[in-house]
Design goal:
The chain is α/β, with parallel strands linked by helices and 261 residues long. The protein has 2 domains: 152 residues, P-loop containing nucleotide triphosphate hydrolases (Rossmann fold); 63 residues, Ribonucleotide Reductase Protein R1, domain 1 (Orthogonal Bundle), CATH 1.10.40.50. Helix content is 26%, strand content 19%. The protein is built from 7 helices and 10 strands. The strands form 3 sheets. Strands 6-5-4-7-9-8 form a 6-stranded mixed sheet, sandwiched between helices. Strands 1-3 form a two-stranded antiparallel sheet. A two-stranded antiparallel sheet has the order 2-10. The chain is globular.
Length: 261
């Protein structure tokens, strides 16, 4: 640091990875080509995608977009289903079962009751951990419970939109012990993974991997092609309809990236 409080960058090191999304669209604006990249954070060991059962409502389609962003960046990712005190146990267990069977570690949690707090905290040791999710899902509230003394700002859910408000305004990394770091991020209203190509998207739905080699065409988009092993797996209930629907929705978004009007 200089005497006036400014600093000097001497060297820019290589990143081991980086998590990003497309810069959100501005209503009424025109776009040609792919939107710019917004880097969320870099050099991450584990990403925790935080969702909520209610206030705002659970949204598996948005979760799947977060997971694609993580998979495309080759970042280890876990799922936290927060606010379990606001939903029926059967509802929560159904989603835990779906994502667990795919291969993700799922933490049911509640900042109010303390459920899952110890389990999450134990998983954070000796890593750089990023918490990311929609606005209002309770990321900062969870972190305040995990690490008393952080005093991160928290907000209320809008009764008009049933959405959260932005209380974290920029990504911030906090050292919680000698070798453990927490990255808190602003909540997002929308998430479009950056740099994902149509032909690669299926590889970021990890349960597709066992079936993709069986597709008749190596350029298969798993949408309409004959001899598609992924579509057959969906029909045979080996891949969930919910996840396949998420895949198709993201695929359509990628196709629309050529020109925005």
């Amino acid at each position: 640091m200089n005497e006036d409080g400014s600093g000097v960058i001497f060297k820019v090191l290589e990143r081991s990875n980086s998590l990003s999304r497309k810069v959100p669209k501005i209503k009424g604006a025109s776009y040609r080509g792919e939107r710019l990249e917004q880097i969320i954070a870099a050099n991450i060991d584990t990403l925790y995608v935080v969702s909520s059962t209610s206030n705002p409502p659970f949204n598996n389609k948005t979760i799947d977009r977060f997971l694609v962003a993580a998979e495309s960046a080759r970042i280890d990712v876990n799922l936290v289903i927060n606010k379990t005190d606001l939903a029926e146990t059967e509802f929560i267990n159904d989603w835990i079962r779906l994502y667990s069977e795919i291969g993700y570690k799922v933490f049911p949690a509640s900042a109010k009751t303390g459920e899952g707090i110890n389990e999450i905290k134990e998983s954070l040791h000796s890593k750089r951990n990023l918490f990311w999710g929609q606005s209002g899902v309770g990321k900062s509230s969870l972190l305040n419970i995990l690490f008393p003394g952080l005093n991160l700002a928290t907000g209320e859910i809008s009764t008009f939109t049933d959405r959260g408000t932005h209380t974290t305004v920029t990504s911030v990394m906090i050292k919680t012990s000698d070798d453990t770091f927490i990255i808190d991020t602003p909540g997002v209203r929308e998430i479009d993974p950056f740099g994902v190509k149509k032909e690669d998207l299926g590889h970021y739905f990890i349960e597709f991997s066992d079936f993709i080699p069986g597709c008749r065409f190596n350029t298969c988009t798993h949408q309409h092609e004959p001899g598609c092993a992924v579509i057959e797996a969906v029909e045979n209930e080996e891949i969930s309809v919910e996840r396949y629907d998420s895949y198709l929705r993201i695929l359509d978004t990628i196709e629309d990236d050529i020109i925005y009007k």
